[in-house]
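HOLO CASE FILE
Compound: NAP
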Amino acid sequence: MPFAVAPANDLAGRTVLVTGANAGIGYWCAEKLAARGARVLLGCRSAERAAVAVSSIRAHAPRADARVIPLDLGSLPAIAEASARLDERIDIVVCNAGVKSAAREARTADGLDLMIGTNALGHFALLAGIARVLADDARVVAVGSLAHRFARIDPDRLDETWTSTSLRQYGRSKAALMSLAFELDRRWRGTARSALCAHPGYAVDPLTPPREGLAPVSAFARSLAAPTRVLVQGKDAGADPIVHAATATDATGGDYWGPGGLLEFRGLPARVRAADEVRSRDVGTALWTAAETLTGTRFDA
Ligand SMILES: NC(=O)c1ccc[n+]([C@@H]2O[C@H](COP(=O)([O-])OP(=O)(O)OC[C@H]3O[C@@H](n4cnc5c(N)ncnc54)[C@H](OP(=O)(O)O)[C@@H]3O)[C@@H](O)[C@H]2O)c1
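Model generated. Tokens follow.
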């Protein structure tokens, strides 16, 4: 039995697009949302990995309505193609897909810095491309990270080759995504649409319940990792603040949700603090202009 208690069918009639839904936190968002009756669109770049995820979702949420949307966030033409193909109303978008480390010279297919290009600009171009099918009360959730706090965004130098560390550049990419999401929310004020951020804390595969074909972890590695559960959590739990931000009635535009426990590494969803820089209107507007320029995409939100 996948669930001790059947979850409510409260998302019936709602359609959710989850990027990077074939693995990790994105997979768990998709499974949890499908189990609550949502129609789930899995935006994935690998048809094979996406198919494995869909069968696992169906095995654990038998009434799941899940469909794959081919989507490579590291290619602007691929994003445009995926966006053009989407012709159904979308109620919720979870901008989850992410590259967490990269070499300094790593680039997207369009020549953009790989982490900025995929994590922030790819989602910006996707949202611009699908804006026409977003529901009047659509909710967008950007998956941020604790790492955003250790990074500075310089909108004028967004695509410059970085000189620091991969982790700091990852933090910049997450800070940029969060800043764009808060800016989107400001632009949507006065409408029923909203944009929020959420982060999963510190979520690792060895503490995650097994799913056939997804991130296999040996029993030995699981037993070694078990004591770390006091500090960190599985990716199933990491999905919870994101699903909360995407669906809860107490979550509203401009919110930032994360795990409420020690250091925000684990725990139940709670409102958490985002760095002033990602909340800044000045940074958000400058970043929006830079994102339009770098992606060659006009986004009239
Ligand atoms: N795990 C954590 O503790 C943690 C903490 C803070 C934030 N986060 C954020 O949470 C999100 C998920 O993390 P995770 O730990 O679940 O990572 P993960 O297991 O590595 O999964 C990342 C997902 O993103 C997809 N992806 C990467 N590049 C893509 C592209 N160009 N186009 C489409 N999909 C792409 C991957 O697809 P492929 O299988 O095709 O590579 C995969 O489905 C990320 O945004 C990450 O920054 C994670």
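CASE NOTES: Residues 15-203+238-295 form a domain with the Rossmann fold fold (CATH 3.40.50.720). The first strand starts at residue 15 and ends at 19.
CLOSED: yes
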